[in-house]
Amino acid sequence: MEMKTSDRGGGPKAMGEKLMQEVAELANKTKKVGKDDPRRIVHSLKVALAITIVSLFYYFEPLYDNFGASSIWAIITVIVVFEFSVGTTLGKGLNRGMATSIGGALGFGAHYIASFSGKIAHPVLLGIFICIIAAATTYFRFVPKLKARYDYGLLIFMLTFSMVTVSSFRDDEILKLAWHRLINILIGGLVAVVICIFVRPVWAGSDLHQMVATNIENLGTFFEGFGVDYFGASQGESVGGANTNMLKYRSVLSSKQNEESLMPVEMKTQYQEHCLQLCTESGKALKAMAMAIRDITPPTTAESHIEKANKTTEELKTLLTSSHFNGGMEMVLATTLIILLIDSFSCSQKIADSVHELVSLARLKTVAPPQSDVAPVEHQSLSHAADHHVITINHTQQSAE
C-alpha cells in the first residue's frame, strides 16, 4: 500500500517536472527565434500597431457611425495583408484591392441583371452566376502562372463576388454595403502598407542578397569537404569534419545522392592529390565570391584560386588521357569522377563571371589599377581579360571616330 501511494504521489510530480521542462524548452526556442533575427520582433510590433490603428473605427462613435459594422473588414485586411517584407505586403495589398473592386462590381452587376427577371427567377439567376464565377475562378487557380502570382487575388475575388451577390438578395442597400466594404478594405490595406514601408522596413532584396551569398559559401564548404569525404581523412582533417562540410550541400540543393565509392585504391592514390586540390581551390574561390557578394566588392581574392584550379583541371585531363587501367569499369569510374569535378569547376567560373558582371552593372566602387592606359593587355590575369578587352574596344571606337 505504501509503494502504491508513493507511485501515485510521484506521478503528478513527474508530469509537473516534464511540463516545466517543455515550457522552458518552448521559452528557449521562442527567445532563439527573436535572437536569430530581431526584425521578427519589430514585425510583430508593427502588426500590433496597424491593428490598433484600424480598430479605432470601432472605438470612436463618429467613425463607427460612418462605416458601421463594415469596419471589421479593415481589421481583417490588416491581418491578412501585412507580411514580413515590403514587397510581399504591397503585392497582397494590390491583389486584395483589385480583387475586391472587380468582385464587388461584378457582384453588383449580377444583382442588377437578375433583378429584372422577377422574384422567382431572381435567386435562380444569382445561383447560376455564382456557380459560373466560382467554377471559372477555381479552375484558373490551377494555371501555374496565375497560381504563382494571383492565387490570393483570385480567392478574394471569388469570396467578394459571392458575398455581394448573396447579400444583394436580402439587402436593398447593396451598393452602399459594397462601397463601405471597399472603403474599409482600402483603408486597412493603406495602413498596413504605410506602416510596413515607413516603420523599420524590411526589403526582400537584402534577404535575397544574404541568401545567395550563404548558398555560395555553403557550396564552397561542400567542395572543400568533398575530397576528404571521397578519399578518406587526409592532410590532418578528420572524417567527422568532412561529414559536417558535406551537410552544407543539402542547404543548396533539396537532396543529395549517396553513392558508394567503387574506385580501386591504386586509382585513388593517382588522382587524389589533383582532385583534392581542385576541390579545395574551387571551395575557396566560391567562399571568396560569397564574401564579395556580401561586401558588394569585386571578387579579386577568388582569381588566384580559379587560376590554380584551372591549372589542376588541365593536369587532370592530361593525366586521364595518358593513363591506362585494367578493366573498363575502372576507367569509367575514374572518368566520371574527373568529368564531374571539371564540370563543377566550370560552374564556379560561370559564377565568378556573373559576380564580375553584377559589379560592373551596379557601378560599384573599385580600386583603379596602377598600370597606365597603354599597358599591354597580355600581362593582365585571365580574370581581368574581359574587363580590359572592353576598354580596348572603346578606345578603338574613339580613334575610329
Can you give keywords for this protein?
about 400 residues, mainly alpha, 2 domains, 15 helices, about 80% helix, about 0% strand, elongated, disordered N terminus, disordered C terminus
Structural topology:
Blueprint lengths: L1 H35 L2 H16 L1 H4 L1 H7 L4 H10 L4 H29 L6 H20 L3 H27 L3 H25 L5 H28 L7 H9 L17 H31 L5 H22 L5 H35 L22 H16 L1
Q: In words, what does this structure look like?
A:
This protein has 401 residues and is mainly α. The protein has two domains: 32-198, no CATH class; 205-233 and 246-253 and 262-365, no CATH class. Helices cover 78% and strands 0% of the residues. The chain has 15 helices and no strands. It has helices spanning 2-36, 39-54, 56-59, 61-67, 72-81, 86-114, 121-140, 144-170, 174-198, 204-231, 239-247, 265-295, 301-322, 328-362, 385-400. Helix 6 (86-114) runs antiparallel to helix 9 and helix 10 (204-231) runs antiparallel to helix 12 (265-295).
Outline of this structure?
With 401 residues, the chain is an all-alpha fold.
Strand fraction equals under 5%
Structural class: mainly alpha
Indicate how many domains the architecture comprises. 2
Query: Roughly how many Å apart are the termini?
Result: 109 Å
Q: Spans of 5+ residues with little confidence (pLDDT < 50)?
A: 1-7, 233-242, 252-265, 364-401
The count of strands amounts to 0
Write the element-wise H/E pattern from the N-terminal end onward: HHHHHHHHHHHHHHH
Oligomeric category: single chain
The geometry reads as elongated
Largest sheet: none
What is the helical fraction, as a range of percent? Answer: over 70%
Count of separate DSSP helical elements: 15
What's the overall average pLDDT, rounded? 72
Radius of gyration: 33 Å
